[in-house]
Amino acid sequence: MMDKDKKCHDCGCMEGERHVPGCDMERCPFCGGQLISCDCCYDKLDLIDGGKYPDTGGLPPEIYNDGLSNTQQIEWEKILNERGVIPYIIIPNACARCGEQWPVFFNADDWKEVIPKNIQNEILCYKCYKKIKGWMKK
Predict the structure, then answer these.
(1) What is the 3-state secondary structure (H, E, C) of the chain?
(2) Cα–Cα dist 3/98, whole Å
(3) pTM of the entire structure?
(4) Which end of the chain is more exposed for a tag (fewer CB within 10 A), N or C?
(5) Cα–Cα distance for residue pair 1/35, rounded to 1 Å
(6) Domain residue spans in the chain?
(7) What is the pLDDT of residues 33-87, one digit of tens each?
């Protein structure tokens, strides 16, 4: 893949650049999760109080219903910028055995019977799956 083709499929930023605000692919610099859906903003802005707001996940009802206010959003952006945002970085899927990047995914009804338990959660290309399957039958 050439550098000029390394664009975020959601917001179009180039690898190494910051995502456009609101991009689904942007990662949170605190938890590593999806920035638009993690709860770090509530935690870092000290907005969670489970004892006071048990019915709204610990958030004041206005925030639970409407999200952050403009002032809170500005403060959250300041916290993010102080921490350092995570730029768009392409991390390819790779076969755990041979290292082939971006292998084609496939279904294997016998995965749990064929693949050893310690690598069942790994990505394998079809060629390596077939090789392991052959070894396991011996």
Answers:
(1) CCHHHCECCCCCCECCCCCCCCCCCCECCCCCCECCCCCHHHHHCCCCCCCCCHHHCCCCHHHHHHCCCHHHHHHHHHHHHHHCCCCCCCCCCECCCCCCECCCCCCCCCHHHHCCHHHCCCCCCHHHHHHHHHHHCC
(2) 24
(3) 0.70
(4) C
(5) 26
(6) 3-83, 92-138
(7) 999 999 999 999 999 998 999 999 999 999 999 999 999 999 999 999 999 999 9
